[in-house]
Amino acid sequence: MGMGLGKGEHSKGKWLPNLHSDLAFVSIAEDFGFVGVLTTLLIILIFISAIFIRALISDSYFVEVFSTILGATISYHILLNLFVISGLFPVVGIPFTFISFAGTHNISMSFLLGTCLGIREKKKEEFEIILSSR
């Protein structure tokens, strides 16, 4: 179950002084244990799957490409961070999306996610209704 919120050695800054930065997932793993890691990864998997499903069910080529690129980018960042945390890759400085304290990265990802949710394809009939109402 983990050591408890804020009670781990890494959380106190003994080994990793900046846990809020690129290695924030280490703090989640240490504080909440295996259950917390699985829960976090399951939420992220559902989130990324929703982006890819949006790409699959879309009729617009632009929405398909935009959603696929966004899902692939988030997946790449998360996989790279998991490899860094497990020691397979060296620390490269890419933040864990929506978990790490990375202001500009989180703002840009939130903007892209909002754009992905906001864009939708308009059918010809919708344009005719909009034009006829004026």
Description of the molecule:
The chain is mainly alpha-helical and 134 residues long. It has one domain. The protein has 4 helices and no strands. The radius of gyration is 19 Å and the shape is elongated.
Secondary-structure map:
Blueprint: H1 24-57, H2 61-86, H3 103-118, H4 124-132
Helix pairs in contact: 1-2, 2-3
Brief sketch in words of this structure:
The chain contains four helices and no strands.
The dominant shape is elongated
Largest sheet: none
Low-confidence segments, ≥5 residues, pLDDT <50? none
- The radius of gyration computed from the alpha-carbon positions, rounded to a whole number of angstroms, is 19 Å
Primary descriptors:
single chain; 134 residues; mainly alpha; 4 helices; 63% helix; elongated
